[in-house]
Write a structure and sequence with these properties.
With about 70 residues, the protein is mostly helical. The protein has one domain. It has 3 helices and no strands.
Length: about 70
C-alpha cells in the first residue's frame, strides 16, 4: 500500500468511526477486542468493505485533495 492509499484508508476508518460509512461487518467488531490489540501493539484486520488494495475503501481521487479530505475529517 502506498502513501496515497494509506491516506484514503485512514479516511475510511474515520468515516467508519463517525458512522458516515458502514462496513459489511458493522456491529460485529468488539471494541474491547480492538483496544486489547492496540495495547499489545498488534494490528486489527480491516473491516469488510474497506480494503484499499481490493478497491473497496475510500476511492483515490487526487493526492492533495485526499490529504485535505483526511484533514477535514
Amino acid at each position: 500500500m502506498n502513501i496515497h492509499r494509506i491516506i484514503c484508508h485512514c479516511t475510511g476508518q474515520f468515516r467508519l468511526a463517525f458512522g458516515e460509512k458502514l462496513s459489511d461487518e458493522y456491529g460485529k467488531v468488539n471494541m474491547d477486542d480492538l483496544l486489547a490489540l492496540v495495547r499489545t501493539g498488534k494490528t486489527a484486520t480491516t473491516p469488510k468493505g474497506f480494503d484499499q488494495v481490493k478497491g473497496e475503501g475510500t476511492k483515490l481521487v487526487n493526492f492533495e485533495e485526499d490529504k485535505e479530505t483526511l484533514k477535514n475529517i
